[in-house]
Amino acid sequence: VGEDFSAEFGLLKLFFDENSSPKLWVSAGNVLVNYNINSQNGFNLITNIKPLIRKVSVNNGTVLFNGYEEFSILNSELKEISYSQNSIVFDFAAPSFLNEIGNDYQYLLEGFSDEWSNWSHESKKEYTNLPSGKFIFKVRSRDILGNLSEAALYSFRILPPWYKTWWANLLGFIVVLLFINYVIRYRVKYLKILCFVFVHSSI
Predict the structure, then answer these.
(1) Which of 16, 27, 69, 70 has the lowest tally of Cβ within 10 angstroms?
(2) Average pLDDT over residues 151-160
(3) Contact 74, 107 (CB under 8 A)
(4) How far apart are alpha carbons 147 and 141 in whole angstroms?
């Protein structure tokens, strides 16, 4: 069993393992690099790392999420957004020591589209005038070697406008009933007056 020379400097963690051949493990966030000290080839990079959703904001500038770790999975509580803020922007990045500029991204908004986007170097995606409903934003990355990552997820729900809420529908239904009742009562009263006039005019 190798000795543990673990040290931590902020987000950077080091672990030295002497099993078989000396290896140095370096981690920062969810990035893990394995450096073989006796190897002439340098290091082995751990691939298939999810991209990070850096920030989620809405059209009025309000930031819904601004963090480092993965925020949302399918079973987590949904973030509810008012209908007046139905334009949303996602900022994301893929941690890579190979060539960050060469990373490509592909995204999908489940509940709005059924197909993944084309690959792009853009690390931002904006959706405008989204309808009410539940959505799951998915983004995955591809490095310069063609390695495809798993998808990072962010779940949210856009609430319906006030005129599509249950209480607005109930209020509208009550108004319609009152109007129908008024029309019926007015019609009955009119027929009574008409009948009364007809009876007295025939005498």
Answers:
(1) 69
(2) 92
(3) no
(4) 8
